[in-house]
Design brief:
Blueprint lengths: L5 H13 L40 E6 L7 E7 L4 H19 L19 E12 L2 E12 L2 E12 L4 E4 L9 H12 L7 H8 L12 E3 L5 E5 L12 E5 L1 H4 L5 H11 L34 E8 L6 H11 L5 E4 L1 H6 L1 H9 L3 E4 L12 H19 L5 E2 L8 H5 L4 E2 L4 E2 L2 H4 L2 H11 L4 E6 L3 H16 L2 E3 L2 H7 L1
Parallel strand pairs: 2-3, 10-11, 10-16, 10-17, 11-12, 13-14, 15-16
Antiparallel strand pairs: 1-2, 3-4, 4-5, 5-6, 7-8, 8-9
Length: 485
Amino acid sequence: MPRRTLAPVLLLLGSLALTAACSTGSPPADSAPSPDSPSRTGGNDTGTQVDLTKLKGVNIVSDSSTDRSCPWATSYPDVPGADAMTAAMKKQVAGRLAGFLGEDIGAPPSCGGADGSEGPELNVSFSFLVASGDVLGVRLATVDRTSNADGLDTRAYWYDGAAKKYRPSPGLIANSSRDTFVAALKKRLEKREGVTPDTVEAALGDQEYRDAYLDDMAFTADGDLKVDFDRGTVGFPPAGRISVTLPRATVTPWLSDFGSRAQKQTTDPDDKLDLGAAHTPAPSASAQPDPGADTTDCSKAKCIALTFDDGPAAPETGTLLKYLAQYKARATFFVVGQNVAAHPDIVRAEMKSGHEVANHSWNHPVLTNLTPAQIRSQLERTSAAIKSATGKEPTLFRPPYGAIDGKVRAATSLSPVLWDMDTLDWKTHDPAKVAQTVISQAEPNDVVLIHDIHPTSVAAVPEILRTLTARGYHFVTVSHLRATL
């Protein structure tokens, strides 16, 4: 999009969004794959709710591109004390990304349409299954849209704080009960449509390989055990994803010691999570002095709107708030819902420091690939998380990768915001290059895209603020820029 025509386009998009109808609803569990909420769509719905205030010092490891022809976004939690589990998730995410980009076969990174058209999409998101006592459970949901297929893969990761060990899902079952457990699964599976004894035997018949198909197991709030199978594993692909729930009374005698503790912490959680971490980081952000009402008239003064995507992040966003406060600069934070849920304190600090908090979806999917119900879920759940953290609902949203169409506009009353300048900081990871990009290309009324999830991007901000302030620029929020142009 031409840079100099974007400011009027932003105003037009805003007016279009404000006239769109806003409806409610959430995607059904059997809808097209889009893991847009913890354990609610496209995965193993355990029906549990995790109190994230127990996760002291958690760090959400996020990364993404802004390339419309190669859209990818990954995230997973790093919880103090669960290093082995974090390492397993990191390996899985790195492998999926390398495969998506073609790096796993030694080829140069490539994906998407060579002509600049929209290509496939990779999205790896997370949800917490259990975070209580000495038990941590996390599910990674991977959507890999390649060719004409929509592929959803889910995997549960477990950490045993008592033994200080990472436990894959089969670790919930005692070794002596594995054969009995698998026999019960086979019996239930063979009654399902699209499943035959041959397809079940191919997946679960070989003891050496069957654990690979039992990689997503979790307890419900009632203590039942739900086992989720990816499409085409225990049944024919047209049958879709298949799940089996074993009642608590049936499965409890088969559980390992860890499985029993995981079941108990799911049904009757403790007040806190204690994995025996040697050190838990201090709170990651504090509010900075609010510069007060902004009287800048951007129709007369040189204004620029710095926008920061994909956060909040610890400790990067807290550091960024300090830099902005030094110059009394205001910014707009386009936050991702799953990160807001983990770091509501940082979002509160953003708001209290005089900045604008806006919606960037729940887990950074290409919204144009989703159904209207899924789009609403992505945006409404994120807005609810922002309101819970700050007491104020957002009015703006940024569609990931800038992917927006009439369907997306019609699904929300939020006003969409794109950008004039993309720093491509996710590619360079070089503070000097990021700073030079902004400084050399800045023009009045620009909306600048940066990511506060990267420490290198945050490190570029002081030079940007110092140089552009000396040139007479005022750093304003997107809403203020729109209101005064």
